[in-house]
Every structure is written in structure tokens, then in C-alpha cells.
User: Fold this.
Amino acid sequence: MTSIATNQAAIRVHYHGIHNEKAETHATERLASGKRVINASDDAAGMVIAGRMKAQFTGLERAVLNSYDGVSLVNTAEANLNEIRNMVLRMREIAVQMANGIYVDNPDRDFAQLEIDQLLQQIDLVAENANFNGVFLLDGTFQGVGIQTGPSANERPSIFFKDNTASGLDISNVEVTTQDKAKLAMVTLETALTSISDELSRAGAYDNRFGHTISVLEQTAKTTRVARGRIMDADMASESTRLSKAQVLAKANTAMLAQANNSMSRVLALFN
Assistant:
């Protein structure tokens, strides 16, 4: 009986068969996983680089979500500031009306003062309840927050808004019960409107900054992810070709091994 261990032709065929089997296994694994680098042995340097890239783009993608949180916080503050401004505008309109000398002290001015008082209460209510995720923004307790907008510790711009309650705007004592008080109220309310406009401008600046930050972060994360994919991802067309080649060679290897063993058996038969 011929042994493969004493058949040099069969040994060579068997060796190539083992090599081809490994190639077929690798191609199958890459097609199944979609990855070119599955183990460190596939590409040690590539796996290290890809690992750093993954840490980078996951940090960038988290920073994008953080920046959207910043946008939401700013938009919350802006919406409430707009509401406060509308109420202060209405108060100023009343003050201008009551500064006119045609109104007697009572009852016209009393009704006007009643509306002023109600608006002041509503301003406080809006300012004291304006919050994002439990962080109160306009009630005077807000000390500012930092938004992590990048994978590095120093990429952390701060957001801050001033006290926009009636007392914070210095309008809590506005009166229109006399013509002189109404004139004074006009000046006070004009100052408050300027302060609110400054806060709205601040909100707009924050919003614009976050918008540009998000755009840069998303593009950088996308580029980094694509670059990592070029290192780690398998070329499906190439791997399919390799698999087909390995399968064809496997069939040929089986036939060649059978032929090698058969040829040696015929040679040995001559000596029997």
C-alpha cells in the first residue's frame, strides 16, 4: 500500500492543498465578516492605525451629538427670551400710552398698571421656568455650562445667559400711575429691551458657532470613518474572486493527489 509520506509528488500536492485551504478559509471569513483585517496577523500595523481612527471618529460623533445638545439649549433660551421681549415691548407700549397727558389718574391708569403687574409676573414665570434638562437658564442661577464639542479636553466652549427675571432686568418697580412715572418707565423699559436684545444676539452667536462646529465635526468624522474602512474593510469583489480561485484549486488538488497516489501505486506494482 502506498503511503503519502513516501510519495514525493503526493507530498507536494498535499502541501499546496493545505496552503490553498487556508486561502479559501481566509476568503470565506472576509466575505462573511466584510472585514479585510480580522486578526492582528492579517495586518498588524493596519489594525493599530484603524484602532486609533475608531477612537477618533467615535469621539467626533459623540461631539456632534453634544453640539446638537448645545443648539437645543440655546434654542430653548432664545424662545423664552423672545417671549420675555414681547412682554416688555407690550409694557413699553403701555408706558408710552400712559405718558400721554389725556389720561386721568383713575381709572385708566389703574387698569394700565394692572396689566403691567400681570406682565411682570408672567416675565418672572417664564424666566424661572426656562430650563434645558433641568438646567435653569434665565432665572439668575445659571452659572454657564461648557459643551464638549471635540475629542480633546480643551474643545469646550461655554454658554452663559444673564438674569432675565423682572428684577434682573430692573423693571420690577415699573409704574404708569402718573404721567411722570410713565415717562420714567419708558426709559427703564428701553434699557431692558436693549439688555434682552444683547442676550438674543448672544444666543444667535452661540447657535452659529455650533452650526459651523457640527458641520466640521460631521465632515471630519465621515472622512476618518472612510479612511478606516479602506484599511479594515474587505474588497468584496476581490475576495469573491479569491474564494472562487481557491475552490477551483481545491478540486484540482484533490484530483492531482489521487493521480499522484495512483501513479506511485502503478510503479510499485512492477516490483511485486
Notes: Residues 24 and 244 are 8 Å apart (CA to CA). Residues 1-5 have pLDDT under 50 and may be disordered.
